[in-house]
Amino acid sequence: MPIFELTKNEFATESQVQVYNLSIDGNCQFEAFASNLTKETKSEIKKISISIWQLSANRKPRNRNHIKGKGLEVCRELKTKNLRLYYLILNPYGLVICLGGQKTKQKKDIAALKTLKNKILKYKETHGGLEIVS
Prior knowledge:
The chain is of the alpha+beta class. It has a single domain (4-129), classed as 2-Layer Sandwich (YaeB-like fold). Helices cover 34% and strands 30% of the residues. Strands 1, 2, 3, 4, 5, 6, 7 and 8 form an eight-stranded mixed β-sheet that branches. It is globular and about 40 Å long.
């Protein structure tokens, strides 16, 4: 089973809602997403970062959506023209950014998010929670 850890997202500077990045076996999913962007989509990360800040301030970004489907009740996305950033509402932590992707691969990414959510919940139950690292 992979090791899941949380680190505070650098754009979540407000304190009303905690926003964490998920690390799987030491690999931060948000950083991996941001570092793999193409030249065309790199400019869209600014919109994503503003939305993360808005979430941490308990504001509702316009580009936020609920993901519909069985087993996806706690799943949300932030979106831009070409990008999607998927996160979970996970008590008692707040919001946990799990993965990012391209609009063109959205169905595949949502399936991966659902699987990842189930693994996180099982890990949380088995290990008594998720560790927050600095």
